[in-house]
Amino acid sequence: MFDRLEIRVLPPGPRFPAQLRFRVNGEDVIEAAVGEGGRGPFAADVLPVGRPSPLRATGEARRLELGEADCTGACCGFLTVLVQRFGEVVQWSGWEVPWPAQTPAPHPPPDLHFPAREYDAEVTRAEADRWQQAQRNGEDVPWVRTRK
């Protein structure tokens, strides 16, 4: 059975620029792994304008930062995962979970497997959302300029 990925671009807030949230099978991956108050990566880092997203899965495994605890990754560490394509399947595995001092060791999420076609479509959709968000926030998007 395959997993289902949803990527959401959250609007910027008072403390942080636009962020991403990842839901797998309806569950917020960041909240489940780092607890309430954790944040996702900045949209500009994971859905960069003008170049491919590091979410794009290839045959070579790539470690991707998906989130951090409210105290910041420098304190307790980051939620990271290895992203790799195996033919028609994209796998997330090798999780590293933030571990605050004085707390029991965390349990990492299980390996996740996505149909590559659906995974690619979701990343493409999120990239388009990021572009639209950038336009709404007045960010400089290289291929779209307003005339003066």
State the low-pLDDT regions, or none. Answer: 139-148
Radius of gyration: 16 Å
Structural class: alpha+beta
What is the distance, rounded to the nearest whole angstrom, between the alpha carbons of the first and last residues? 53 Å
Number of domains: 1
Percent in helix: 10-25%
Estimated share of beta-strand residues: 25-35%
**Topology, number of strands:** 7
Describe the protein:
This protein has helices at 29-34, 43-46, 73-76, 116-137, and strands at residues 5-10, 19-24, 27-28, 62-68, 78-86, 89-96, 112-115. The protein is globular, with a radius of gyration of 16 Å. Mean pLDDT is 81; it is low at 139-148. The strands form 2 sheets. Strands 4-5-6-7 form a 4-stranded antiparallel β-sheet. A 3-stranded antiparallel β-sheet has the order 1-2-3. It is built from 4 helices and 7 strands. The protein is an alpha+beta fold and 148 residues long. The protein has one domain. 27% of the residues are buried. It starts with a strand and ends in an 11-residue tail after the last helix.
